[in-house]
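Case study B.
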Amino acid sequence: MSLRERRRAALTLVVVFVLGCVAMVTAVQPSAVLAGERPQGSPAPAAAPLASTAKQAAPRAVDCRNLKCVALTFDDGPGPYTAGIVKALKAKGAKATFFMLGSQVKGREAAVRAVKAAGMEIGNHSFNHPDLSKLGARAIRSQVGRTDAALAKAGVKATLYRPPYGAMSRTVRASLADRPISLWGVDTLDWRTRSTSATLRAASAAPRGAIVLMHDIHGSTAKAVPGIVSALQAKGYHLVTVSELLRAPQPGKVYTGRYAR
Ligand code: NI
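Model:
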């Protein structure tokens, strides 16, 4: 082997080594990003800057036209179980919508603010839960207005309305024409069974696009929430607020979900 041939061989070795290193680095990067997105992943030290970039981009809105979404909703609070439910949701990166009663909001303004601060949506569920379909326009407006005022004291504006019992009438619709109405597609019957396992089963069976009815005033429902979130997330569902599910709910319209077309 001449000197020139030896130099060429050495140069080839160096080039191969450098190319090998580049290939390894580019192969490691995508898996590091994936590891950063998995809460239980163990990202390599080199992945730290990538993981923090992914974290910053995380709060972007979920697009339920392309992703599997379900909207969990909790009515009749806030009450003694509300904070625990919010904590369980937040721990798993889930959101939900709380339809509150004005009479329950009064004196619990800090609790209401905490629900909102955790990224949850808040809706108006009347002041003290009458059947609005049996009331006149003036009484209906009073039920809605007093609850709006109670929420405003907590610094919160309700984005949606849900009449108690889902009871509608022409007068109810006309009186609530200035905001979207959210009913539901799945009733877990948690208010009747008061059973954690029955509530877990009913909510976990929700189809894509469903608005699921539950109540944050029952301990049995609160106990079911961590399992419901795990079961739905394991099926690939994103747990979103009703407004995220519907994208841009229109005033005067009545929604029961956003089902696949
Ligand atoms: Ni209710």
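The two ends are 73 Å apart (CA to CA). The remaining cases will be described in the next quarterly update.
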